Amino acid sequence: MARVYDVIVLGGGPVGINAADRAHAEGLSVALVERELVGGECNFWGCVPSKSLLRPVLAVAEARKVDGAREAVVGAIDAKGVFARRDRYVTNWDDAPVADVVLGMGVDLVRGHARLDGARRLVVTTAERRLELHARHAVIVCTGSTAAVPDLPGVAEAKPWTNRRATDSSTVPARLAVVGAGGVGVEMATAWHGLGSRVTLLARTAGLLPRMESFLGEHVHRGLVEAGVEVRTEVLVTELQRPGGTGPIQVTLDTGERLEVDEILFATGRTPNTADIGLETVGLAPGSWLDVDDTCMARGVEGDWLYALGDVNHQALLTHQGKYQARIAGAVIGARANGLALDSDPWSAHVATANDLAIPQAFFTDPEAASVGLTSAQATQRGHRVRTVDVDMGQSVPGANFYADGYTGQARMVVDEDDQTLLGVSFVGPGVVEMLHSATVAVAGRVPIARLWHAVPCFPTISEVWLRLLEAYRDGAPAG
Amino acid sequence: MARVYDVIVLGGGPVGINAADRAHAEGLSVALVERELVGGECNFWGCVPSKSLLRPVLAVAEARKVDGAREAVVGAIDAKGVFARRDRYVTNWDDAPVADVVLGMGVDLVRGHARLDGARRLVVTTAERRLELHARHAVIVCTGSTAAVPDLPGVAEAKPWTNRRATDSSTVPARLAVVGAGGVGVEMATAWHGLGSRVTLLARTAGLLPRMESFLGEHVHRGLVEAGVEVRTEVLVTELQRPGGTGPIQVTLDTGERLEVDEILFATGRTPNTADIGLETVGLAPGSWLDVDDTCMARGVEGDWLYALGDVNHQALLTHQGKYQARIAGAVIGARANGLALDSDPWSAHVATANDLAIPQAFFTDPEAASVGLTSAQATQRGHRVRTVDVDMGQSVPGANFYADGYTGQARMVVDEDDQTLLGVSFVGPGVVEMLHSATVAVAGRVPIARLWHAVPCFPTISEVWLRLLEAYRDGAPAG
User: Fold this and answer.
1) Would you state the pLDDT for residue B478?
2) Pyridine nucleotide-disulphide oxidoreductase dimerisation domain: which residues (chains A, B) (predicted)?
């Protein structure tokens, strides 16, 4: 008495919803299984609440950078108002509106915990029932990830925050330690400092945003310090003490120092939500990241039916990249189900070209930071013959200064000398987040340098940094 | 005893400076002649001061759009602070810093009024001297334009503002009439309203920004009204009265209505600065716009030596487009001077492809507006088989709402159905100005729709409007 669908999607976050939508658009019957909230981590404890919290902080910071505007910003940010807007954007952690969207797509929504039970078979359990689902064509795993909290002495009693409490709290801790130098760490340090916490950022690495071009982290570091955040790099937390699980937390560092805070946030990486989804029944290791090919099909499983999208495939733990994979996988599954050959052209809808070529990432910090494609180090490592050019945005872009007096920012372009296209572009500075897509179009579209000269940036926008990058490339020495 | 140069540039605004720089970079000797301030209208009475004035107004307006940030903006904009930043960016109308840049390029700077005196010959006059200049290869006219003030009864005595007073005034008129619905009109209405004037915008046309897609003007109109600007469309000013040239101005409209204001700004078009540059000595009509080919060489002159860039060629009265033409003309003149064939490939450095294909324009209003390439009407008129898709940004782009609560904005993409590239893109809404370059790269780079699907916009940026545009195109009906 199993229910049979063409496609079954495990995990109802943005990735799963997009995958379900695209598969359904291919004329396939689809069930989406979610064990918690439809909309997932991103909608309720990720980008949505974090950007809701960050924008008021950044809007005020931006106005304060402008002479004549600064004088208007004499009040304080209203934390209650910020929490209210956050609550509105997460619809008070009620997933009914998102669930309605899914139902409106013509996709069946199944609530419960799904586990694989051999090829194309799933068992969904809730407290009340056990349901068998069979997939004719494909099962798509997009169960996401969970914050990884290090196993430190005292950690349980310390009740540390992860991304969940950092985005759903409506009280501002007087003193907050943020552990981790990646995107979540620097963004949440920015948000909670802006909302009134005294924030200490504790980074294991020497630089912040360690996966990016190093100047991004340097600028963000300086911005945090200037705002009043204490930033400690190359330190490890070795022990926590919070007797009885309430009151202040004593944080011990590997330097022997101690720090007293009211809450501690761990933003120290993610674990895939694959430990309890029956991977062992199809020959894969429970708890592992799932390796996929460029159609997003999982490797190591017979029969071309298992796909893994979003965080679980570990290619890029970013909602937008997971949604991109969902579009690709939906089209691929549709083609295979309909007996059509896959189009192997890298610009076809069947190849996740951008997974390799052009992953974009934006950090809503002060200053903002954004990057797409390969860093100069990655490009060299991959064997490209590259030339890298840098531009000081404050020094050379008038529009940057009109935007923020005393603008400081930097841009970098990594050029493939052989085919004269861009492998990567990074920006840091106020207002750069919405500039990123110009770089993404150039990198993903493989627009040659010669054509980019005909893409005229408006005077006096910050985007004129593109002229400076092109000039620096034209006038610089070719790569050795 | 004439001085001889390879290239002589008439007009030391940004366009002339860029042309001189590029010609010099081609190994040519260059003189730049300027009769007023080196840096030109743009630097001293155009984009530079106007954007210096506008940014504080927009930064405060943006913070007020965000719950929790709004509460911090309890003061007023400090007009004195705004004027001080403007004065700093125009270096107090002292052109020495810009002149130093020109000299640092290795370009000779000649001050005075230059007039053509037959082919390749110029006479420069100042109060003290008369100097003859001969050009071996090229003369480049980039003398710009001047505000055209209509010849109305009473206009002289009314001492109306043009872009000059509108950008260099350090007093805020209590009541200001702005005549004109183009970029200068809507931007200056925004700036002076923000600085404290009671502004009435008087437009001859039915809609604002009449050369753009109509929805841009509709949104800007609504924004101005919501801010408190009175907007009157389809009205003409017929008479001004300001007895003795001081005190309030009585403005009579063609409706018979009268309006009393303290200053009136005419932003009603531009006249080319070509009336007194000796065009008659080379067979061209003084005071006319100069027609050019796609290398920016003036038509109607024998011998391939006269170029016209920037406002005077009437292709686009925009600093950035003039600078683009300067890059093209510099390379063209260098090639011709060195006896090299011109490269006719549209992506070469010798063809001003973007003049026809991809002129970008940004309006620093509230909401911001920006556009590149052809409008849907222009595209159809030119015979393209087009399909136009629209997206309501407030309704469909989460990142837009995180940016500004209750976001209203719209985007339009005009697609060439035959080659599946973009002919034009327009945006209106808070924060769209820096998004424009993503469209410019797509339009100027002729990136096909299929590739744009691999350019992933970050969640949750406003740039995710690109996904909505692509989806709308994918899901819509093909053009009849």
Assistant:
1) 67
2) 359-466
- Average pLDDT, rounded, for chain A: 97
Q: Look at residue A222 in the predicted model and tell me its pLDDT.
A: 98
The verdict on B289 and B142 lying in the same domain is: yes
Ramachandran region, residue B314 (left: φ > 0; alpha: ψ -120 to 50; beta: rest): left
CB-based burial label for A155 (10 Å; 0-12, 13-18, 19+): middle
Residues B297 and B385 in one domain: no
- pLDDT(A268) > 90: yes
- The pair phi, psi for residue A411, each rounded to 5°, is -130, 145
* Arithmetic mean of pLDDT, B380-389: 97
3-state DSSP assignment of residue A366: coil
SS3 (DSSP) at B99: helix
B269 is known to lie in a ligand binding site? yes
> Are the C-beta atoms of B407 and B223 separated by less than 8 Å?
no
A347 with B451: Cβ contact below 8 A? yes
Note the pLDDT tens digit of each residue in B63-102.
Answer: 999 999 999 999 999 999 999 999 999 999 999 999 999 9
What whole-number distance in Å separates Cα of residue A139 and Cα of residue A151? 33
d(CA B190, CA B168): 16
Which of residues B332, B354, B376 is at a domain's end?
A: B354
Cα A316 → chain centroid: 7
A-chain residues near B319 (CB < 8 A): 459-460
Q: Residue A109: CB partners within 8 Å, gap ≥ 6?
A: A12, A31, A32, A34, A38, A99, A102, A103
Chain B closest-CA separation from residue A347 CA (Å): 5
**Is residue A232 exposed (0-12), middle (13-18) or buried (19+ Cβ within 10 Å)?**
middle
Strands A421-428 and A369-373: antiparallel
Q: pLDDT grade, residue B479 (50/70/90)?
A: low
Within a domain: residue A208? yes
Partner residue facing B55 (CB), from A362, A403, A432: A403
Domain count, chain A: 3
Report CA torsion sign: A116, A122, A124, A130. Answer: negative
Residue A261 and residue A280 share a domain: no
Instruction: With beta carbons less than 8 A apart as the criterion, state whether B311 and B140 touch.
Output: no
CA distance B4 to B132: 9
Residue A60 lies in a domain: no
Determine, yes or no, domain membership for A324.
Answer: yes
Q: Which among A394, A21, A338 is positioned nearest to A219, based on CA atoms?
A: A394
**Residue contact B354–A323, C-beta within 8 A:** no
- On whether B187 is known to bind a ligand per the annotation, the reply is yes
Partners of B71 on chain A (C-beta within 8 Å) are: 75-78, 81
* Percent of residues, chain A, with pLDDT higher than 90: 98
Q: Do A174 and A307 share a domain, yes or no?
A: no
On whether both A165 and A229 belong to a single domain, the answer is yes
Domain of A18, CATH number, reads 3.50.50.60
Q: How far, in Å, CA of B58 to CA of B222, rounded?
A: 16
Taking an 8 Å cut-off on Cβ atoms, the answer to whether A457 and B448 are in contact is no
**Which residue is listed with tokens 């981790």?**
A180
Is the pLDDT at A269 greater than 80? The verdict is yes
Integer CA distances (angstroms), A114 to A30, A32, A133, A275, B388, in order: 15, 10, 9, 12, 43
> A460 lies in which domain range?
367-475
Name residue A71's amino acid: E
Task: Please report, as a single letter, which amino acid is at residue A162.
Answer: T
Q: Residue A449 corresponds to which amino acid? A: I
pLDDT tops 80 at residue A478: no
Q: Is A359 contained in some domain?
A: no
CA distance A430 to chain B (A): 11
Domain boundary, last residue among A252, A268, A284 = A268
Asked if the Cβ–Cβ distance from A63 to B62 is below 8 Å, we say yes
Nearest CB partner across the interface for B52, out of A353, A402, A431: A402
Same domain, B347 and B371: no
